[in-house]
Amino acid sequence: MRSLVIALLSVGLFSCNSENKSNSETSASQPQELVTPDFNVALNFINDYTKLCIQPQRTKTSEWIRQNPLLTDNFKNRYTTLVDSADKKDPELGLGSDPIFDAQDFPEKGFSILKIDTVNRYVTVVGNDWKDFELVLKLDQENNKWLVDGAGIINVPGDKRAKR
Q: What is the per-residue pLDDT across 124-147, written as a single tens digit (0 to 9) for each?
């Protein structure tokens, strides 16, 4: 009788353990809820950047980038590395174009959202006064805030960039 009770208890304990394990495995394998990025963050950033670029007495861009709360640290570091490297190679010309616009010229009246990719977190914007000018930006979430992690040639792979 005593052996029977121990056997039943053991079976009960093992079955509880395996049930808990399968429940935790099931919940871990369920897909996480897809959170839609706030693409207005990208639009606000690129429109603010456009305003900066058309100012007659423009503030130093690298300082503006470094202090911008709409950008990830990854973006800021990549921008700084890219610009500093180009300036060392050719102090007079630098990159030869704007890495954020991925061009020398840009729409001066800002941008509007053209299309979004919620899965990969890319947004394509189009110039308000230059409808053929498209630009791709990428968002990332840090500390529950959506921030710009890519624009132009900064952290945007070649196959995702707007065609020039």
A: 999 999 999 999 999 999 999 999
